[in-house]
C-alpha cells in the first residue's frame, strides 16, 4: 500500500505518505512520492526541515476535527512523545486517512469531555467592565469633593471618557450603572463557562 497526499495550503504538514507499515510526514512539498522518498533517503536535510517517520504501532492517539477536515496525531518517535497536525483538502482524503490510521494502529473510538476557551473572552470583558466602573466611580467621588482629576500619562483618551461619564452620572449612578453592566458580563461569562464543556471523539 502507498498513499501519498499533498496539501500545499496546509499550515504545517504539506506531504503525507502512508505505506504498509510506516507514516511519513514533511512540512515541505516535494511534488511527487519519488522526490519525497529520495529526500528521506538522503542524509542532507535542511536545518529547518521537519520530517516525521513512525510506524502505526507508534501512534498513541488521534483526535479528529471533521468540520475542519483535520486531525491531530500523538505518537512516539525516537523514544519521545510528539504530536502533529494534519490538514486535508477533501472529505474523501480525510476519511481515507483516518480510517487507515485507526485501522492499522488498532485504535478504539472513545468520547471524552474537554473544556473550550470560549468563556475567557467573556471573563476579560467582565474584568474590563469592573475596572472601568471603579475608575468612573473614583473620578466621580473626587469631582464631587472638589478635587481636580488629572488627565495625564498613558490612556489619556480613556481617562477623559471616564471623567465625562463621572461628571454626567455622579458617583452613585456611575457605581449603579457600572455594577449592572459588570453583572451582565459576569452572567454571560458564567453561562459561557457552563457550556464550555463539549464532547470530543478520540481514537486511542
The end-to-end span amounts to 23 Å
CATH superfamily of the largest domain: Pleckstrin-homology domain (PH domain)/Phosphotyrosine-binding domain (PTB)
Rg, Å, rounded: 28 Å
Q: Which blocks of ≥5 consecutive residues have pLDDT under 50?
A: none
Main-sheet strand order equals 1-2-3-4
Tell me, briefly, the overall form: elongated
Mean model confidence by pLDDT: 84
Share of residues in strands = 25-35%
Architecture overview:
This protein is an alpha+beta fold and 204 residues long. The protein has two domains: 3-107, Roll (PH-domain like); 118-195, no CATH class. Helices cover 44% and strands 27% of the residues. The protein contains four helices and nine strands. The chain has helices at residues 33-41, 91-105, 118-144, 156-194, and strands at residues 3-6, 15-18, 22-26, 51-55, 59-65, 70-77, 80-87, 109-115, 197-203. The strands form three sheets. It has a four-stranded antiparallel sheet with strand order 1-2-3-4, covered by helices on one side. Strands 5-6-7 form a three-stranded antiparallel sheet, with helices on one face. A hairpin with an 8-residue loop joins strand 1 and strand 2. Helix 3 packs across helix 4. The protein is elongated. It starts with a strand and ends with a strand. The model has no long low-confidence stretch (mean pLDDT 84).
Amino acid at each position: 500500500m502507498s498513499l501519498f497526499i499533498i496539501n500545499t495550503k496546509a499550515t504545517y504538514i504539506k506531504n503525507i505518505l502512508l505505506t504498509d507499515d510506516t507514516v511519513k510526514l514533511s512540512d515541505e512539498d516535494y511534488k511527487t512520492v519519488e522526490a519525497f522518498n529520495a529526500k528521506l533517503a538522503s542524509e542532507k536535510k535542511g536545518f529547518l526541515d521537519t520530517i516525521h517517520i513512525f510506524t502505526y504501532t507508534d501512534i498513541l492517539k488521534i483526535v479528529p476535527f471533521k468540520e475542519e477536515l483535520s486531525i491531530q496525531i500523538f505518537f512516539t518517535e525516537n523514544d519521545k512523545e510528539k504530536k502533529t497536525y494534519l490538514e486535508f483538502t477533501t472529505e474523501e482524503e480525510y476519511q481515507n486517512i483516518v480510517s487507515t490510521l485507526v485501522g492499522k494502529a488498532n485504535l478504539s473510538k472513545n468520547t471524552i469531555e474537554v473544556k473550550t476557551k470560549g468563556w475567557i473572552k467573556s471573563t476579560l470583558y467582565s474584568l474590563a467592565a469592573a475596572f472601568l466602573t471603579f475608575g468612573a466611580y473614583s473620578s466621580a467621588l473626587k469631582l464631587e469633593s472638589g478635587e481636580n482629576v488629572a488627565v495625564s500619562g498613558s490612556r489619556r483618551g480613556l481617562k477623559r471618557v471616564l471623567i465625562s461619564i463621572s461628571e454626567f452620572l455622579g458617583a452613585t449612578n456611575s457605581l449603579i450603572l457600572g455594577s449592572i453592566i459588570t453583572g451582565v458580563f459576569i452572567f454571560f461569562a458564567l453561562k459561557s463557562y457552563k457550556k464550555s464543556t463539549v464532547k470530543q471523539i478520540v481514537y486511542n
